[in-house]
Specification:
The chain is mainly alpha-helical. Helix content is 64%, strand content 9%. A 3-stranded mixed β-sheet has the order 1-2-3. Strand 2, helix 9 and strand 3 form a beta-alpha-beta unit. Helix 1 runs parallel beside helix 6, helix 2 runs antiparallel to helix 6 and helix 4 crosses helix 5. The two termini are 19 Å apart.
Length: 328
């Protein structure tokens, strides 16, 4: 697959990024909690609409990181009788709740507060405190973003994808959430600082209010993007052609499989796939003897870290086989 050409659902089979994703979320949680506290103090002292929007943004992000930690924990719960495919999709549910919280608590409140402050008059106060807090916040948010970017680049490089393409398409929903939330936070800080600076220079509070509104619009765009991607994975995101080719090659690598005539792959969690295939076996036998052999192949497939469950059935007569992507 060439760089940047991967279709939706591009991901890395076998990528074990759960531990690293938790680290990324924890770093973001600690950074946002510290930032939210500092911004709240600055907003109370300065009365700046932009600082209020930034404080609201950071508290929303802090709450979201808690939801993302829940997503990571719930999604790794082992399969049981009530959930034979595991709990992987819980990651998308909790991540979508976090994204909705960002939309309501971050975007709508920031826009509403900014609109209410459009008619405000008078000089602001304690600009220096606000600038210091925003500078510290930028450093902390930057540290969190660097961790998310490092994980993104490492995974994207393995697939020969551009980092932005990977982060949009990956099934690692918590990584995508932290990446975009931190990126939005950095840009939001610049917007808030610009609003403050224009307020200080002109004495017109409308610029501060506009800064708050722009921060809210930015958060709304990010939240809607995250909600859309989580919905797509919840309703059944198909895998990329590259991932499909890797799984098909793995089936043909099995000496007991002569051909594969049907293959369905669907994400049931971060880097976890449901595999359904119809195969022709390389030998003929009665059904009572074939079934244990099919079960043995399924068991071997499920030992691979990216296969949550595998279901194989015998191909119908006369169905054309799928081409082996790696005939060697």
């Amino acid at each position: 697959m060439t760089s940047g050409d991967g279709p939706p659902g591009a991901d890395e089979p076998g990528a074990s990024t759960g531990g690293e994703s938790i680290l990324t979320v924890v770093i973001a949680l600690v950074a946002n909690a510290l930032i939210a506290t500092a911004k709240t103090v600055a907003a109370m002292v300065s009365g700046s609409a932009s600082m209020v929007a930034e404080a609201t943004h950071s508290w929303a992000d802090t709450g979201n990181e808690v939801f993302l930690l829940v997503a990571e924990r719930r999604s790794t719960k082992a399969a049981d009788d009530t959930h034979p495919l595991g709990y992987g999709r819980a990651a998308y549910v909790w991540s979508m709740i976090a994204a909705f919280g960002l939309f309501v608590a971050g975007s709508i409140l920031s826009i509403t507060h900014g609109i209410s402050e459009l008619g405000a008059e008078g000089e602001g106060s304690d600009y220096l405190l606000s600038y210091i807090v925003l500078a510290i916040a930028f450093v902390l948010e930057g540290a969190s973003f660097v961790q998310a970017l490092r994980q993104t680049r490492a995974s994207a490089a393995k697939l020969q994808l551009r980092p932005m393409r990977y982060i949009l398409d990956t099934s690692q929903t918590t990584l995508r959430a932290v990446f975009f939330e931190d990126a939005a936070a950095l840009l939001g800080i610049l917007l808030a600082a610009s609003g403050l600076a224009l307020h200080e220079i002109t004495g017109n509070a409308v610029y501060d209010a506009i800064g708050s509104i722009l921060v809210g619009v930015l958060l709304g765009v990010v939240a809607l993007l995250l909600i859309q991607r989580n919905i797509e994975f919840l309703v059944g995101q198909q895998v990329s052609a590259d991932v499909r080719g890797q799984v098909l090659a793995a089936l043909y690598d099995n000496p007991e499989i002569d051909s594969v005539t049907f293959l369905h792959l669907e994400y049931v969690g971060p880097s976890k796939l449901l595999l359904i295939a119809a195969v022709d076996l390389a030998f003929d036998d009665v059904e009572s003897a074939l079934q244990p052999r099919i079960q043995a192949i399924e068991d071997r497939l499920e030992q691979r870290p990216f296969i949550a469950r595998a279901f194989l059935t015998l191909s119908a007569p006369g169905v054309a086989p799928l081409s082996d992507p790696d005939p060697r």
